[in-house]
Amino acid sequence: MTAEFTNWSIPGFAEQLIGFRQPTPSTSKEKGKSPFRWAKEFFAPETSSTEEDFEYRQDFSSLNQAILASYSLLLLEDDWDGEGSVGYTLETWRRAATFLLAEATAFWELTEQNIPIPGIQPGPDGSIDLHWLLGKTELLINVPADADEAISFYGDNSRGQKVKGSINANASNQWLMMWLNQ
Amino acid sequence: MADDVVEPIDPNWPPEDIPDNDIIYMRVHRQKFNPDGTVQPGAFQNKGDGMSTDWAKYAAPEDTQRRGRVPRDNGVVSMVVGRVRQIPGQTVVHTPIWSPKPEECNQSHTDVYGDKKKDPETRVLFRRLCRIVIPLPPLETETIDQFPSF
């Protein structure tokens, strides 16, 4: 069972788990992009099929696995560390996962590249941290437990650039991933 | 003094000023370590008013680890007080704990006050300045001894 889970690489499973929906193939085509070739090579490199045989998917399998692994945060109940730390709720985890997949999708739409996989980690007071440490570039995004609070972030790099502030999860924030991947 | 007589604990430990060059220790739970052994930013958060640490003047890293509910689930990091004070909004205050229960007394207890939640930069800076002095102990593996030997 463990081996099956480890090897499970069904793209989109995490999206289904959190109810996230990626753009449809037609949307992508309208933008003039052709992810078909990549999808074909990824899912069935040895077969010859027509474009209609494949559902358009970005390569989110690694991200999906990271999100699925982070589901274990929900096992941490109040006082899980013996220091009084607050546990994590499904709602907070969903917001973090949805935000991450939205960022990944938007970044793919712009660049046809995947975002680096972040650490999805326990944050303060039931919040969830998304943490990237790429050489000397670091970005920390905090998804608060309170849905009414804004998502906050801080990042800096070896060029002396700093980004800091709060963002609306429902707005377009792909510039943050652009900054991270520059 | 007979061996079975416990030395009374002075309930009047006065709070002292902690010099900038001194060291404080903090427990870090297993869940807040990355697989590569580094510490996550989430390790740095207040419990109540402040973040609990131990002043090295009165504690060794092992003492800090031992105070955890499950010591083997914790590593210990050190921080230089002066560098902590350089993080915007953070103050380091000696707050010794006295209790009638000897096991709850802690003369080394020190709080790091200041918000660590609203501004992620604060936790990034904490992560960078800390040094691991007791790495996370490996998980204890169950030994299979219920099978007969052949």
Task: Describe the structure using short key phrases.
heterodimer, A: 182 residues, alpha+beta, five-stranded antiparallel β-sheet, 7 helices, 5 strands, 35% helix, disordered N terminus, B: 150 residues, six-stranded antiparallel β-sheet, 3 helices, 6 strands, 15% helix
List the helices and strands and how they pair.
The complex is a heterodimer of chains A (182) and B (150).
Chain A lengths: L1 H5 L6 H6 L6 H6 L5 H8 L17 H10 L19 H22 L7 E4 L5 E7 L2 E7 L7 E6 L5 E6 L6 H7 L2
Antiparallel strand pairs in A: 1-2, 2-3, 3-4, 4-5
Helix pairs in contact in A: 6-7
Chain B lengths: L22 E7 L20 E6 L5 H6 L7 E7 H6 L4 E4 L14 E5 L6 H10 L1 E4 L16
Antiparallel strand pairs in B: 1-2, 1-3, 2-5, 3-6, 4-5
What would your notes on this structure say?
The complex is a heterodimer of chains A (182) and B (150). In chain A, helix 6 (90-111) packs across helix 7. Chain A has a 5-stranded antiparallel beta sheet. Chain A contains 7 helices and 5 strands; from the N terminus they run H-H-H-H-H-H-E-E-E-E-E-H. Chain A has helices at 2-6, 13-18, 25-30, 36-43, 61-70, 90-111, 174-180; strands at 119-122, 128-134, 137-143, 151-156, 162-167. Chain A is 35% helix and 16% strand. In chain A, strand 4 and strand 5 (162-167) form a beta hairpin. Mean pLDDT of chain A is 77; it is low at 1-11 and 23-56. Chain A has 182 residues and is α+β, with helices and mostly antiparallel strands. Chain B is α+β, with helices and mostly antiparallel strands. Chain B has 3 helices and 6 strands, in the order ββαβαββαβ. Chain B has helices at residues 61-66, 81-86, 120-129; strands spanning 23-29, 50-55, 74-80, 91-94, 109-113, 131-134. Chain B has a 6-stranded antiparallel beta sheet with strand order 4-5-2-1-3-6. Chain B is globular. Chain A binds chain B through residues 76, 80-85, 119, 121-125, 127, 129, 131, 138, 140-142, 152-154, 156, 164, and chain B through 27, 29, 31-32, 34, 40-42, 45-48, 52, 68-70, 73, 116-121, 123-124.
